[in-house]
Amino acid sequence: MPMDITTADGWGAAIYVWIIPMVVGDAIFPPIPSEMLVITGGALAAEGRVNLWLVGLMAAVASWLGDMIVFQLFKRRLGHILDRWAWGRKVHQGIHRAIARAGRSSTYGAIIGARFIPGGRLAASAASGIAEVSSRGFSLCAGLGGLLWATWQTGLGYFTGSTTKLPFWASSLIGVGVGLLIGVVVGVIVTRRRGDRSPVDEPGEPPHF
Questions:
Q1: Which of 21, 57, 90, 92 can pair with 82 through a Cys bridge, CB separation 3.0 to 4.6 Å?
Q2: What domain count does the chain have?
Q3: Which of 10-14, 33-37, 99-103, 119-123 is least confident?
Q4: What does each C-alpha distance from 197 to 166, 189, 206 come to in angstroms?
């Protein structure tokens, strides 16, 4: 679908198409700017261009779906697929390091909260799969976490759009900046806690990278 990103009408016509693939893709490849897209949806909703509730619902469902894909991938011990590429090995090693810091404690809390930390969503989902967290428990936590994340992101965009009265793209940038700042602060707090041995260590692998 053609999309003129310079106009609110262009975004409003296509944002529904992009939300699901980008939010799902972000679960596997964190650099995908799904947060910016969902925040933009909130800013557009403040201008009456899109439906706020539909944007939030689609983002929450896509977040849950992406988490479940990563979880099942690692639950079935398919992490070796990443090792076929150099970038995949770096991602795999990064997952080990992230979970080694978090440890085994507060597993369900980490599934819900890690998505608010840059890169935390992938790490939490992959570690939960390898650590054999129950599928039902993970699904419920991923669903709750996705709902909270979508509410936060769309609400942030809607709030900045409603209060600043700036063009939607400016409100989106402000929202992204605030979200990143809060995410970094949360990340610093979390990573100060040194966890136990990483649950993602597999037979034949060194325990740490």
A1: 92
A2: 1
A3: 99-103
A4: 48, 19, 11
Q: Does residue 62 form part of some domain?
A: yes
Tokens of 136: 């039902």
Cα–Cα distance between 167 and 180 in angstroms, integer? 20
Quick one: which of 169, 156, 151, 144 has its CA closest to 12? 169
Residue 84: inside a domain: yes
Residue 70, domain extent: 8-191
User: Which of 35-39, 49-53, 101-105, 164-168 is predicted least confidently?
Assistant: 101-105
Furthest CA-CA distance within the chain: 57
d(CA 153, CA 33): 12
Helix (H, G, I), strand (E, B) or coil at 193: coil
Quick check: 160 pLDDT over 80?
yes
Q: How far is CA 125 from CA 28, 87, 90, 128, 153, in A?
A: 10, 18, 17, 5, 20
pLDDT tens sequence across 85-117: 776 677 667 666 655 555 544 477 778 887 887
